[in-house]
Amino acid sequence: MTPIPDRNLDALVTATKAHRSIYTDPAIFELEMTRIWGQAWIFIGHESQIPNPGDFFTTHINHNIPVVMIRDKEGSVHVLHNRCGHKGAKVVEQRSGNVRGALRCAYHGWSYRFDGSLLKVPNETGYDNTGFDSKAPCYSMQPLAQVDSYRGFVFATLSASAPNLVTWMGGAKDCFDNLCDRAPEGEVEVAGGVLRYEHACNWKFILENLNDTMHPMVTHESVVKAAQDYIATLPPEAVEQRREAEIIPPFGASYEKFEDSGITGFPFGHHYDGGKTSIHADYSVDPEYHAAMVAAYGEARTREIYAFNTHNVLFYPSLTIKCAVQNIRVIRPISVNKFIVETWSFRLKGAPESMLQRTLLYSRLINSAMGMVGPDDLEVYRRTQEGLASPSNEWVEFHRQYGRDKVLEDRIVGGGTSDLDMRTQYGAWKAYMEGSIFEAKVSGVAQ
Amino acid sequence: MKNEHRIENFLYQEAGLLDQPNLDQWVTLFTEDGHYWMPAAENQSDPLNHISHVYDDRVMMEIRRRNFVHPRASSKDWSIRCSHLIGNIRVGHQSANGDICVTSNQHVVVWYRDEQRVYAYRGTHILVPDSSEDEFKIRQKRVDLINPEAPQCSLIIYL
Question: Does the beta-carbon distance from B48 to A360 stay under 8 Å?
């Protein structure tokens, strides 16, 4: 890897444009993995994935650093480097499962407690008087620099100097609250498995697309028309068919509707569109679910919970959630032109099963590799990846409504069709890459 | 054996429509309550409470076939061609309602976006004999990929 001087990095992003090399240069990708993914809080998993002691879930915190999330015998959740303290082999190979007793390396049998501490080295006497200290942290499975969770969502960071999780989330935290408050019991749990979707393009394209409200009516025009054409053929009594098909047309909402939804940006690159309204606001509410909500919260609070209606919220750079749909997408970068999107669905505790089924229907139709929305998004990302090889213009622009963003104490708000989402995430990109992200007062919000 | 030949021919005919591809006609092979199901996990028992790559009823098939030929569907700007190879066809017993369960192994080579991909799956067809027309309707086609948990690339055609 050729080192890139920081002064050049600084020039790659301005308030209204980004240089094309940030999508295509493998050296910049490697730096992103160290400076963005190596410093930010990265979403690891949800506590409900590992309900019992010894339950584990493995993933990577960036493109290649393997980690394991595991619950210990006292019920605490740990996120450990998945690396044997001895010769470095990954200790846990399966994606998820349960271990009894201790974690054990398949190579020489070193074993570890669920908090990562070294339990036993076979034939230990060979280490007597060699200077080997079995208590030294380097011989354990080491915890990540910081690990924390919020309402069951577990994050970890490789940076000891990152602010605590709640501070880092800022106002975007409200979206976790809203997602969980949509459960009559106030808690959600992972349910119904995961979809993995391979994207042959740079990881940042999907983040840019989440709250790009200028694209749906163009990119998703065909499926919206297909759904509308079909709905037009239905006789009045085909209520079920109409209800099922109605999940799609909001993707063709007008520019005016999207403008009204607004975009809100926070420090560290987080942002969402919607708040008062979103394209999910007009989905009908299941009467049985509504009754359970009113029983739990009362009518007024229930209405308040529904009324906070965001479309996509991004916890930059690894996680995006849909509160109103109860699914999340997790970004797992692989290389400069490849990443995986994982879609996980959530059960609202205390809600009828029909709610989970609706969530899964949504995930299938929209987020599956065989969906009717995702493949058109990926198609335009790939065209962008290929088009940016052209030297005809060195820059990708994001001027829309620049200068009109309104700066409040802890956030920036702007029009729903503005490029505020781009300015927010690229302000953070720049600060992470320069190393100043945790220094500035409202770091990450570019103006 | 006569029935088995008819069933084999039906599977070939169905695959032929996907090879072309002709979704408008393919959809008509399904019963009104018919489903096409591609699970996202091994031995998945439930299409509703667990995620699938696809679980389409006739509503979604109707939307999908219209979208498939829509000029503004950019992922469909690329022509797609398939070649199904079907083997190991086994005709199970007829259930009380007359439905016949047929399993097969299917290898599908898909040409899309300048790339050739191979999919392999165990197919399970629940067929409804239609004696008046001497053919079958599909109540369910289940596609169990050998790699259902793997990250999948965009797949814009039924397999």
Answer: yes
**In this structure, are residues B123 and B142 in contact, taking their beta carbons and an 8 Å threshold?**
yes
Q: Residues A183, A133: one domain? A: no
Q: Which residue ranges in chain B fall short of pLDDT 50?
A: none
Contact A363 B64 (CB under 8 A): no
Are A69 and A126 in the same domain? yes
Task: Write down the architecture of domain B2-145 according to CATH.
Answer: Roll (3.10)
Residue A205 resides in a domain: yes
Evaluate whether residue A9 is within a structural domain.
no
Q: What is the pLDDT of residue A108?
A: 98
Checking if the pLDDT of A17 tops 90, the result is: yes
Claim to verify: residue A143 and residue A191 sit in the same structural domain: no
> Looking at residue A447, what is its pLDDT?
38
Residues A224/A248, Cβ–Cβ less than 8 Å: yes
- Provide residues of B within 8 Å CB-CB of chain A: 38, 40-41, 44, 48-55, 57, 59-60, 62-64, 66-67, 70-77, 149-156
ipTM, 2 decimals?
0.96
Into how many domains does chain A fold?
2
| Long-range CB contacts for residues A385-390, cutoff 8 Å, separation at least 24 | A385/A23, A385/A24, A385/A200, A385/A201, A385/A202, A385/A205, A385/A337, A388/A20, A388/A23, A388/A24, A389/A24
Residues of B with Cβ-Cβ distance to A378 under 8 angstroms? 75, 154
Domain membership of residue A13 (yes or no) is: no
pLDDT tier for residue A425 given thresholds of 50, 70 and 90: very high
More confident position, A307 or A47: A47
- For residue A81 the two structure tokens come to 């480097």
Q: What is the pLDDT of residue A446?
A: 43
A351 and A282 together in one domain? yes
Mean pLDDT for the stretch of residues A135-164: 98
